[in-house]
Write a structure and sequence with these properties.
6 helices
């Protein structure tokens, strides 16, 4: 499999897994929804899960891959405030949990880079 298709598949699978998790185990996601957002945390959890599933589908299909990958980069940036909320809320937890929460902050950068790479190379991916 070409590296371009591999990065797109990795991106689609990552998004799909996260999207499914939002519906199967929503409580951890509810807890990190920034409190200043209007409406219920659960509504935001489900909306972001649905967005992740839709973007995963767009990335998985060759003809929508570029747009889907660009949407993925935007989605990863859009959910960054939830990671900030988690880091803030977990600042007094034991060191390993605090490290996990703080590690999520720079962890968004490789996801954004993967999405941008998939977008840049979408036109070069072999037909599936």
């Amino acid at each position: 499999m070409a590296a371009t298709a591999l990065s797109a598949r990795l991106l689609a699978r990552t998004l799909a897994a996260a999207g499914v998790a939002h519906f199967l185990v929503p409580k951890p996601f509810d807890a990190i929804v920034p409190r200043h957002l209007p409406g219920s945390a659960r509504a935001w959890t489900y909306a972001s899960g649905a967005a992740e599933l839709a973007v995963a589908a767009a990335v998985a299909l060759l003809r929508t891959r570029r747009a889907g990958a660009l949407a993925a980069a935007g989605l990863f940036a859009a959910v960054f405030p939830a990671n900030v909320q988690m880091a803030y809320d977990w600042r007094h937890r034991p060191a390993p949990l605090k490290a996990l929460a703080y590690g999520r902050l720079p962890g968004q950068l490789p996801l954004i880079a993967l999405a941008l790479h998939a977008a840049r190379t979408a036109g070069r991916a072999p037909a599936e």
